[in-house]
Amino acid sequence: MSLGDDHQSSGGYGGTSGTRMRLPEEEGGHRRGGRSSSRSLVTVVGVVVLLIAAIAFANRGGDDSESPEAAADKPKASSTAPSGTTPVQSGFAHDEQGAQSAAANYAVALVSADILKPSRRAEIVRQVFVADKQAALEEKFDRAYSREFLSSIGLDEKGNAAQGNTYVSRTMPIGTKTTHYSDAATTVEVWCTGVFGTAGEKTTSPVTSDWFTMTLQLRWVDDDWKVESFSQKDGPAPVPGDNKASSADEMSKAVQEYGGFTYAR
């Protein structure tokens, strides 16, 4: 996604429509995918049986009973709900893998719900972009995410959803590819998927998934990789699965209980 100054809503597959945002240089996309033809029931049952057998085999061996001491030594399960503590970020390595790690993390930040909040936007811009681009890009973001645009996707001027609704915009990098590298500048493509929209009974922008690729031009400055410019294009996208859409309550609960990742690779 690069930065464009206008915004639009576009129809999705299968007759449903989803919010599609244009960022300051180019178009970013949020849209609902269609449904593929149903898989054979026999195939599904076969896969489930194989999975159960594999799990049973992995757990086999040893006494089924467990001493209290052994049980106490096992790690306790916990959710990934946000702790409020910022993850440790000490800069990215000055090599190709460090550039890919930086690009993956910056992609997550640039398509996050926080970028829609004026109170957080300036901080994200300072963290992500080279210093000589920050002022111009912050102005472009402010124009792109205007009060009118936020209202069109069901958010108030502070980027918050209406009472009873939960807005989500989370991006997950699937993979990265360096298309140009030098010690001073590099270009990285980040293949992403994500979920975007508002979980709520009366929302006009329901949560949908999307697949896209972000291209980020990075520059090595002040002992770290920072973004000089970026753009976005659609896909590659897989054939949609047969997942049944969750209810608004289920989606809202998931967003609140499962914290999004903020530091990748």
What does this structure look like?
Helix 4 runs antiparallel to helix 5 (131-144). The longest helix is centred in the N-terminal third of the chain and has 19 residues, at 41-59. The strands form two sheets. The chain has a four-stranded antiparallel beta sheet with strand order 3-4-5-6. It has 265 residues and is α+β, with helices and mostly antiparallel strands. The model is unreliable at 1-22, 25-66 and 70-84 (pLDDT under 50). It has a single domain, classed as Nuclear Transport Factor 2, Chain: A, CATH 3.10.450.50. The protein has helices at residues 41-59, 68-73, 96-110, 118-128, 131-144, 147-152, 248-257; strands spanning 8-11, 17-20, 166-181, 185-199, 208-221, 224-234. It contains seven helices and six strands, in the order E-E-H-H-H-H-H-H-E-E-E-E-H. Strand 3 (166-181) and strand 4 (185-199) form a beta hairpin. It is globular, with a radius of gyration of 21 Å.
**What is the total tally of β strands?**
6
* Overall 3D form: globular
**What's the number of structural domains?**
1
Query: Helices and strands, in N-to-C order?
Result: EEHHHHHHEEEEH
Category from helices, strands and their pairing: alpha+beta
CATH topology tier name: Nuclear Transport Factor 2, Chain: A
Low-confidence stretches: 1-22, 25-66, 70-84
Residue fraction in strands:
15-25%
